[in-house]
Amino acid sequence: MMNHEVKKIIIAGGGIGGLSAAISLGRAGFEVTLCEAASDMRKSGAGILQPQNALRVLREIGVYDECCQQGFQTEWLKQHDENGKLQFKVSEAFLDDSLPGRNNILRQTLNDILKKHAEAAGVTILLGKKVVSYEETADDITVHCADGTAMTADILAGFDGIRSAVRDQMLQREVKTEYLGMGAHRFYISFPEPIFHDSTLMYKKGQTQVGVVPLSEKTGYVFIIRPYDADFRDDEDTRFKRVKDLLRGIPGVKFVTENMSKEYPVLFHKIEQMAVKEPWHRGRVVLGGDAVHAGAPTLAQGAAMAIEDAIVLSEELQKHENHETACQAYFERRAERALQVQNLSSEIVRREIKGTPGVQDIISECYRLLKEPY
Question: Does the pTM of the predicted model rise above 0.90?
């Protein structure tokens, strides 16, 4: 073990960012305890796209091969009009010829892989432990959970999502989210015959965008992004029929409409963003992932940015003796990049609502930015 003042670390949040941080810190020799609010870690959501910058980090922390074995790789993003006519395609291989363009994987499968590797790295994972507050002294930090338990460490890392309790206590204010004017439906889909090859498929009709993401040759997930009023309430009982009727109005996705099944639930969430522009650390607390830069899913970079946060935080805590110096170095490396990517993701939503062209240019700008080292 390194002769550092930081030896014990508690991570709040067992999502992709928190688990990635746990793996990286555990492998580096820190004593890591991860507290996850859910009692079974079954993550909702059909699937997740892993772009090359995420794959690069996953390779560093030793989970890349397994993610690719369990996922499906694509090389192209193809944009079609409502009738299925190809408008343009963008290469997803923007970083590294040794990596696939993207790896698409079920969110639950990814969660299981990360959890297994975290435990192999010596991480203690505590389920049903929602971190709600903390107390600091000059020497340590005591973390309090909703069930009344408390534990002590040298550092608390808040990867507890867009409604982070750790963040709000650290900043001493309730951070408000901004609704971006659109909502997203998502569902898993299975086809009787192989239909997918090397591409993620997108279809656009007016302000409605439909994405069809392969998870294997015969399975995938579908997402639909379109405007909704801020007070819109999505009725679960009628959701399947409404979404199917919506898709029937887009001829290019007939292959999706014909194969939708009530066996796979349709999920819905409103697209929100939240950015912390002041330092992401104070005292013995440091933040990462959606707790500091939650944004739109339009560039598939939310989880990728959290994974980058995770490895950079680990690198800086290994490099510096003093935790505040390490956390400041982490903030300086991560904040500008993550907030720029978040803004580009939200800009796509703003342009879709206004009907402004230039989405292809935003994708290119994001890829240029991501070519810089994390």
Answer: yes
